[in-house]
């Protein structure tokens, strides 16, 4: 049968763009449909604008610390519209680059919503029907908004990048990645931040000691935490402020409520049920190791499969899909030892097993820690300690996990992750001469 395209990709985000571009480079006739902006969550309302806000926020501490280093810093004001508009302009620039790359590879970019209407058929928002030998679903995920009276007065991370003015009092629901990153951002911009979580665990999945250090430092900075609290009701008052009622604590008054309680796959109304694509109980597309769904001609990559919701993972899945299907190079993503980071203030990062996971899985382990006050913090009079932890298999001496919190932790961890992935031993770390004076030298000095 003749199809309009060899490949039709739905969603031009991290996974979809990579899959479309590489498949086209292998000679496939490819189209990609995008209902919002090319680049997807990471570029438009995720990693990129978030990291730029983190940089912007960090100046609050840098400017204060500079005085201890002899700089005569006058009283500085922060102007939110300047940062917001510069960040949004940068996002537009990157969006342009992504679109250009796709077009240069002869990928047809269709700026509309698309839904699946057959195993080889896609229906566009304007009513056009197109056919493709293979369909790749790369529609990502969307923020979860809990259901309770007044929840409509809250925003999600999608809107946080567009705020008219900076709120003075912010309540953030959740205690995961987005909650902790935005807690740091709003706090550094001068807002009073309260994090509300239904349990007393922040950043589940990260090493407990590292998480505890972030909690301690955040509280020291003045970020408040309300644990074991569930939202009951939010009222909007005449002056526009919010009265937020929760279980287990007094109501909180705030100017902004932001939900950061997870992201669910974007499969609603996508037509997948009509063709028999199997979804799990979270609405994620169930795929095999080659990203193939329960329907032979339909594949899925990225957040919509709810495996690991990170951009580099979506990109790898998109690449593996293209290599396997159109490049004659069967490739599978290796999910072992994926490094990750939280761009909180200070940031934290980790790779491999946490101490708790290692005790359960490996049994006999050794742990090494470096708990130190970075040189810069000492001179700045900033009482913030960094903490590095290394987990070693006691039998093989292999380093099976590295976890850290402190300045530049994500930058340092990316390099350390190579060693963990390469299954290097603790003795091989010890053989490396320290690079002095750095924070990273602690990695080869742990005793
Ligand atoms: C605030 C925030 C910060 C983040 N920070 C980081 C970080 O620092 N590091 C990191 O690794 N990850 C981060 N992430 C996660 C990362 O953004 C995602 O894991 C990644 O974007 C997933 O890529 P994807 O291709 O699966 O989906 P997406 O990038 O979400 O792309 C999906 C695209 O599909 C489009 N679409 C959806 N439905 C349709 C349809 N029916 N028709 C046409 N188009 C459609 C959407 O508009 C979107 O553009 C962050 C996420 C958020 C929300
Ligand atoms: N630096 C990064 O790499 C980065 C940054 C941001 C987001 N992301 C990705 O995006 C995903 C989504 O981020 P997120 O922060 O929304 O999710 P998350 O899974 O990190 O955290 C969700 C939090 O919400 C809490 N929660 C869940 N349901 C709740 C409810 N009904 N009421 C109150 N609290 C509730 C959970 O206990 C948890 O603390 C992450 O899992 C991550 O993969 C990555």
TrEMBL record:
The active site is at 436 (proton acceptor). This is Glutathione-disulfide reductase. Its cofactor is FAD. One of its GO terms (molecular function) is glutathione-disulfide reductase (NADPH) activity. The keyword Oxidoreductase applies. NAD(+) binds at residues 174-181, 262. Belongs to the class-I pyridine nucleotide-disulfide oxidoreductase family. Pfam families: Pyr_redox_2 (PF07992), Pyr_redox_dim (PF02852). GO terms for biological process: cell redox homeostasis; cellular response to oxidative stress; glutathione metabolic process. GO terms for cellular component: cytosol. It comes from the Bacteria. The keyword Nucleotide-binding applies. InterPro entries: FAD/NAD-bd_sf (IPR036188), FAD/NAD-binding_dom (IPR023753), FAD/NAD-linked_Rdtase_dimer_sf (IPR016156), GSHR/TRXR-like (IPR046952), Pyr_nuc-diS_OxRdtase (IPR001100), Pyr_nucl-diS_OxRdtase_dimer (IPR004099), Pyr_OxRdtase_I_AS (IPR012999). FAD binds at residues 51, 303. Residues 338-445 form the Pyridine nucleotide-disulphide oxidoreductase dimerisation domain. Keywords: Disulfide bond, FAD, Flavoprotein, NAD, Nucleotide-binding, Oxidoreductase, Redox-active center. Residues 5-318 form the FAD/NAD(P)-binding domain. Disulfide bonds join 42-47. PROSITE patterns: PYRIDINE_REDOX_1 (PS00076). Binds 1 FAD per subunit. Transmembrane segments: none annotated.
């Amino acid at each position: 049968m003749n199809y309009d395209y060899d490949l039709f990709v739905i969603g031009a985000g991290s996974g979809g763009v990579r899959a479309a571009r590489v498949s086209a480079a292998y000679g496939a006739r490819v189209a990609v449909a995008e209902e919002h902006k090319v680049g997807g969550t990471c570029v438009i309302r995720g990693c990129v604008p978030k990291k730029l806000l983190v940089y912007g926020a960090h100046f609050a501490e840098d400017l204060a610390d500079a005085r201890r280093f002899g700089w005569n810093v006058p009283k500085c004001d922060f102007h939110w519209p300047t940062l917001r508009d510069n960040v949004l302009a940068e996002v537009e620039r990157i969006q342009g680059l992504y679109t250009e790359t796709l077009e240069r590879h002869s990928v047809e970019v269709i700026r509309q919503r698309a839904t699946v209407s057959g195993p080889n058929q896609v229906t566009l928002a304007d009513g056009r029907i197109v056919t493709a030998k293979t369909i790749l679903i790369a529609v990502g995920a969307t923020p979860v908004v809990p259901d309770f009276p007044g929840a409509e007065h809250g925003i999600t991370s999608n809107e946080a990048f567009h705020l008219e003015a900076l709120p003075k009092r912010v309540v953030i629901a959740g205690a995961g990645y987005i909650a902790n990153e935005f807690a740091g951002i709003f706090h550094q911009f001068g807002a009073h931040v309260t994090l509300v979580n239904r349990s007393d665990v922040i950043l589940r999945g990260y090493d407990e000691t590292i998480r505890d250090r972030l909690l301690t430092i955040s509280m020291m900075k003045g970020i408040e935490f309300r644990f074991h609290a569930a939202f009951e009701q939010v009222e909007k008052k005449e002056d526009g402020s919010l009265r937020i009622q929760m279980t287990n604590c007094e109501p909180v008054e705030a100017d902004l409520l932001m939900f950061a309680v997870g992201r669910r796959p974007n499969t609603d109304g996508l037509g997948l049920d009509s063709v028999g694509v199997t979804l799990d109980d979270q609405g994620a597309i169930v795929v095999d190791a080659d990203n193939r769904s329960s329907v032979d001609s339909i594949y899925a990559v990225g957040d919509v499969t709810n495996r690991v919701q990170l951009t580099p993972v979506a990109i790898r899945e998109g690449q593996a899909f293209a290599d396997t299907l159109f490049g004659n190079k069967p490739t599978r993503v290796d999910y072992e030892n994926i490094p990750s980071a939280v761009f909180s203030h200070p940031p934290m990062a980790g790779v491999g097993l946490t101490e708790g996971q290692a005790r359960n899985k490996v049994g006999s382990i050794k742990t090494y820690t470096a708990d130190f006050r970075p040189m810069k913090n000492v001179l700045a009079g900033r009482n913030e300690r960094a903490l590095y932890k290394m987990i070693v298999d006691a039998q093989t001496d292999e380093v099976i996990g590295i976890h850290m919190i402190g300045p530049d932790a994500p930058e340092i961890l990316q390099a350390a992750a190579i060693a963990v992935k390469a299954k290097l031993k603790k003795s091989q770390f010890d053989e490396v001469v320290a690079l002095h004076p750095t924070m990273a030298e602690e990695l080869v000095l742990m005793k």
